[in-house]
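Hi again,

Forgot to attach this to my earlier email, sorry! This is the prediction with protoporphyrin IX containing FE bound. I've pasted everything inline since the attachment limit keeps bouncing my files.
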Amino acid sequence: MATSGGALPKASVPDTLAILGEVLVPTLAKGTLFRRPKAVAVAERLQLDERAVRRLQKLNGKYGDGPLLLRIPFRRQAVILAPGHVHSVLAHSPEPFATASSEKRAALSHFEPRNVLISHGADRELRRRLHEQALDSGNPVHRSADAFLRMAREEADELLQRAEAAGMLEWNAFAEAWYRMARRVVFGDSARDDYELTDMLAALRANANWAFLKPKNLALRTEFLARVEDRMRSSDEGSLAWFMARAATAPEAAPADQIAQWLFGFDGPALGAFRTLALLATHPGQAEAARREAQAQPEGRHLPYLRACVLEALRLWPTTPMILRQTTRRVDLDGSVLPAKCGVLIYVAYFSRDQRHLPAADRFDPDLWLDQDSRTDWPLVPFSEGPAECPARELVLMFSSAFLARLLTRADFRLVSHQQLTPAKPLPGTLNSFALRFAVAAR
Ligand code: HEM
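Structure tokens for the complex follow:
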């Protein structure tokens, strides 16, 4: 990255206000660290995510490929509008595009002040390595897959039993089963019913939504991290925390702060898997292909089609809607100069839902992830990419596909809540997973 080049286009005050009002505020209102179901319901009713994408497209037409600098007092903030810039920013992270942006620091320090996401330099390198080792990053099938997939099957079966008895599957039951699985995977069987631990984290995350606008609950944070550390010390062999405990020997490793991110991270795949179920329940052709794959592989080790279905749900409704960076110095991005300490925003759906470039932008099309010929350089980055890419990408896809495979081979699901989800119509920009309801019948 060079340090010379031309000035950036600057959004007018009304256009800056439009981005704040239509892109940033709705995303923050939904809760970036802890979703607020009521705000998500409003966003769905008003289709706010679709509006955000349209607004950015309009500004792209008006100002060109950017990055577009906003007019915000006392703050430098740029929005990425060109696909090539997404790849450059993510490839050159964390230097000069630091992951530890000021707003992320303010938010995440409510519950994991020494986490990799808000670390820089040598600390970040060390912590990133620990995540990659424990999560087996890049390996489609984690080395503890035998035990992990058994847990996924067991929790899916128990969920199904309850859902079949009730004749109905709703978000709360799904999320509870998912988190029982997550606690077992992270620490081992004895943590399965430690609801208190994840409830403590939920309280801290709800505060963290407010970043610097709310004081930190330091007493709760200390209690939570101490409890995570205790659980790590007594974790089962082969669990994620067990791998972390063995590798995290340096004093800067801060293993509890790293594990906190895993517990938080398991929210994303729950949302993604539940939405995938909604897509499959409303798209018979894709459901048939997924079921055939699942029946052929009851263990669920590697299910490429179902993984592609999950990736589609994450493309259509990204669970990390904004990827944030901050420049560590003046940077020339393809001839445009970003000043030092400038916030950089990648609004993921602007790219993943861009029907100007993706003919299937608003359809459920798993082939997008499978068909090498239709692959382009277009940034589809639900897990980000480059050196800070989500280190749990493969693990998430393994769990989500295996859990769904178990459900699909044992029961039929009919979506009774969202009539607008149909292959005949463009898929909505916002899908409120908290309100999804399925009628369930054993197969
Ligand atoms: C649907 C599920 C998930 C999605 C879509 C997702 C996506 C992401 C994204 C977009 C980032 C930010 C990367 C960046 O700033 O460039 C990230 C970071 C991270 N994720 Fe995930 N994530 C998911 C689940 C998980 C889970 C379950 C875990 C742990 C078990 C996890 C662990 C992490 C960690 C440790 C980071 C920090 C990486 C770094 O800064 O180097 N994620 N994830």
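The first strand starts at residue 68 and ends at 69. Strands lie at 68-69, 77-79, 97-98, 168-170, 322-327, 331-333, 336-338, 343-347, 411-415, 437-442.

That should be everything now.

G.
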